[in-house]
Write a structure and sequence with these properties.
- The structure is a single chain.
- The chain is of the alpha/beta class.
- The strands form two sheets. Strands 2, 3, 5, 6, 8, 9, 11, 13, 15, 17, 18, 20 and 21 form a 13-stranded mixed beta sheet that branches.
- The longest helix has 16 residues.
Length: 401
């Protein structure tokens, strides 16, 4: 969708281009509805996300390269689907139709509507029942130099008693002009399935990342989720793990590092619906220079949930007196049947006694600080099963210290 800016695009243009691309009618109508909401609504009133530098209507959507998929080709013999989402529209239309937009609400606000109206490509991952995908699958979304927008979609469906590790990566060079990334990730974990999901955001400078992520777990499904946020100018991610099925379980680690003048916000939710479901969330945050990070986490235990066991924690480390971190953990309970529920938050500077102790053993102050930060982030970094990516992220973190 080159040439026309968002201000110049119309619903008729959206429909025309969808039909020209040969998309099914249901998708064309969804795009029309989403665009209508985007065009008619004002920006959301987010208290801690500064969008004053983003003139979204002036951006001209550009066609970016398809997602780079890295995986084992022989998996198709087991019935595993790992292909670009556009291709999946033709080969697995009913599966896509059933699950696309079923988790992350497309009409929630102006930017969710924009994502639903203009997504171009992404990936479909489908794992049949009783199939274990041993090799981690990776999808890398790259915003080329000079590109202004990208709206990728990750759609994952695992059937009963299957297992999967998926790594989702967002990367780009530094951008001279403001760019907007609006990714959406929807993961549906079937009964008894096991999903390990790593999402690593390390955009270059001047990228606004406004994303939605949701993981829905069926009965006895389990998930390990790792969220890493390092890059971009401004980040606003609305993320949720919904423990819908009885006996479902989630372990969620996060690592955020904001430096220079970055503003990185993550709003992660643990929503309990099923009985005897368990969840634990631990986010680690480091801020440096004049960086600003926000953790707006929430546990929501719905009325129908019983025997819930859950805890949410966020711990922040300040490397500069001018850096800022807002930690806003919350707990909403609508039931009388809770086994365990709690939240905690800590924030402070690097321990001077710890630094002194390390320096007394011949370690320089700079190296000591580096070791402390890397150890602080180790729960998230150690969960990454691909050494190449783990080392790349470690190098980025070390450059920010």
């Amino acid at each position: 969708m080159t040439n026309l800016t968002l201000k110049e695009l119309t619903a008729d243009t959206i429909v025309e281009r969808s039909r020209a691309a040969g998309e099914p009618g249901w998708l064309t109508e969804r795009r029309r509805d989403a665009w209508t909401l985007f065009a008619q609504s004002g920006p959301p009133q987010w208290r801690r996300t500064d969008l004053s530098g983003l003139a979204a209507e002036e951006l001209a959507p550009t066609t970016t390269p398809a997602a780079e998929l890295i995986g084992a080709p022989e998996l198709s013999a087991q019935g595993v689907v790992f292909k670009p989402l556009r291709e999946a529209l033709a080969s697995h239309e009913e599966l896509v139709k059933q699950h696309l937009d079923a988790a992350v609400a497309p009409l929630e606000h102006k930017f969710s509507a924009l994502r639903a109206a203009l997504w171009q490509d992404g990936v479909l991952v489908f794992v049949p029942k009783n199939v274990a995908v041993e090799t981690p699958l990776r999808v890398r979304y790259t915003l080329p130099a000079g590109a202004r927008t990208t709206f990728p979609r990750t759609l994952v469906v695992t059937e009963a008693n299957s297992s999967l590790t998926l790594i989702e990566e967002f990367t780009s060079p530094d951008q001279e002009a403001t760019a907007l990334a609006g990714p959406v990730t929807e993961i549906f974990a079937g009964p008894g399935s096991s999903v390990r999901f790593i999402s690593a955001q390390h955009w270059g400078a001047n990228v606004y990342h406004i994303g939605g992520q949701k993981l829905v777990l069926d009965r006895d499904a389990s998930a390990e989720w790792t969220s890493i946020a390092l890059g971009g100018k401004v980040q606003h991610i609305e993320a949720e793990a919904t423990l819908k099925g009885d006996g479902s379980r989630v372990l969620w680690h996060g690592a955020t590092f904001a430096n220079d003048s970055q503003l990185l916000l993550t709003a992660p939710w643990l929503r309990h619906i099923g009985h005897s479901a368990e969840s634990f969330m631990e986010f680690k945050t480091v801020v440096n220079d004049t960086g600003y990070s926000v953790f707006d986490g929430m546990i929501k235990i719905e009325r129908e949930s019983t025997a819930t066991s859950t805890r949410l924690e966020e711990h922040a480390l300040h490397l500069s007196p001018k850096a800022r971190n807002d930690s806003i953990p919350g707990l909403k309970i609508d039931t009388n049947s809770v086994l365990k529920g709690g939240h905690a938050s800590t924030s402070g500077d690097v321990d001077e006694e710890q630094l002194f102790y390390m320096q007394a053993r011949g370690i320089s102050k700079a190296e000591a600080k580096r070791m402390i930060v890397m150890g602080f982030f180790s729960p998230a970094l150690d969960s990454i099963p691909v050494q190449e990516l783990r080392e790349e992220l470690e190098a980025i973190i070390e450059g920010k210290i």
